[in-house]
Design goal:
single chain, Gyrase A, domain 2, 2 domains, six-stranded antiparallel barrel, 22 strands
């Protein structure tokens, strides 16, 4: 049986087409996926992302645990209010999940994907059981919390007007906690608002009590912010060149070939995070593949699973869409590392001209190609 977020009735009122996604009933769109896409690029939209899994890690050993658990270096989060993107690996170097780590005044918060929850929660429990300082550590899933993403060039102004919380001073990957009654910042406020997103646009993501999320949603819609579904969320993130777990990466794919090598903190050399030995061996042997961008020159639409023919060998499309912003088809593809320049994509058994590009197509509404 699928679960429903606290905003389910709001989605019904807004005319959403609801579909099962990662065990949840979620809005695919509210009438027009393409129109919703353009709204986020030109104005502002709000996404219900309450299906995401929020986990608090606290205790005197919290940092040491994260240093073992994550490939990125949580010690770089030197003060409360800082956030960091990274990956959680298995011993073979495969990606269990990609996530954001938030440094709070009293510990850390992780936000992981909805579709990986059923493996991440047991994995954390096993890692805690094997951790030498397990009694100095608490891991708590915060299922009672909801999460909204407000994205687009007008998002900050709209969110501030509705919430009375001034987030304009936050830089990218910074966050603050707020008292929802006064709008003032607090060290352990009920609302956590981060300058993060999954669209390539400015905006915030707010983690807050479910009842507050419903009121915020209603206030935003009343202020002219449009609800946005999963369909536009996917085309927006693809234009931004952002990976989707389960398509562009999974537990059989390592970050060295998922365009995520930058999330691996190799120093200090003494930090033995899960998957380090495997990644070290892979790096020493030589990485043979890469995840890169792909632009279709000929007619058609690139889709997941299509074969990419290059002079260096065959590759595969991991995510492919028709870009509403650019007006032609784009994709992320895993190809041989030596591949470059013009290639061909097999569409319905026919080769169509394409070219490899940097895996970032649109940022802040502007074409990056």
């Amino acid at each position: 049986m699928t679960q429903r977020t606290a905003l389910y009735e709001e989605h019904v009122k807004a005319g959403a087409k609801l579909v099962p996604f990662a065990g949840w009933d979620m809005p695919l769109h509210y009438g027009s996926q393409v129109q919703e896409h353009h709204v986020v690029r030109t104005a502002s939209g709000v996404f219900d992302v309450s299906h995401m899994t929020v986990i608090d890690i606290e205790g005197s050993a919290a940092l040491d645990f994260l240093q073992h658990l994550l490939a990125n270096d949580a010690a770089k989060l030197t003060a409360a209010g800082q956030a960091q993107y990274g990956v959680m690996l298995n011993p073979e170097g495969g990606i269990i999940d990609d996530l954001i780590t938030y440094r709070r005044a009293n510990g850390y918060r992780l936000v992981v994907n909805a579709g990986t929850r059923d493996k991440v929660i047991p994995w954390l429990a096993r890692q805690q059981d094997q951790f030498s300082q397990a009694n100095e550590l608490s891991i708590t899933e915060r299922a009672e919390l909801a999460m909204l993403a407000i994205q687009g060039p007008e998002a900050i102004a709209k969110f501030t007007a509705v919430s009375k919380m001034d987030v304009s001073g936050l830089a990218s990957f910074e966050f603050a906690e707020y008292n929802p009654t006064s709008g003032a910042q607090e060290s352990a406020g009920a609302w956590m608002v981060a300058r993060t997103g999954y669209t390539g646009e400015d905006g915030v993501e707010a983690i807050l009590p479910a009842a507050d999320a419903v009121r915020l949603w209603q206030g935003l819609l009343g202020a002219g912010v449009q609800p946005i579904g999963l369909g536009a969320r996917d085309t927006l993130r693809c234009e931004a060149g952002l990976n989707l777990y389960g398509q562009d990466m999974d537990d059989s794919i390592n970050p060295l070939i998922a365009n995520l090598a930058w999330t691996i903190a190799w120093k200090p050399e003494t930090r033995d995070f899960v998957g380090r030995a495997a990644l070290t061996a892979i790096k020493a042997a030589g990485v043979t593949e890469k995840l890169t961008g792909l632009v279709l020159i000929g007619k058609g639409v690139i889709r997941h699973g299509y074969v990419v023919k290059t002079a260096a060998g065959d590759g595969e499309v991991t995510s492919g869409i028709f870009s509403p912003t650019l007006g032609y088809s784009i994709a992320l593809a895993r190809v041989p590392k030596a591949a470059k320049g013009e290639v061909e994509v097999e569409i319905r058994g026919k080769p169509v001209a394409a070219k490899l590009v940097k895996p970032s197509f649109v940022k802040m509404g502007q074409a990056m190609l």
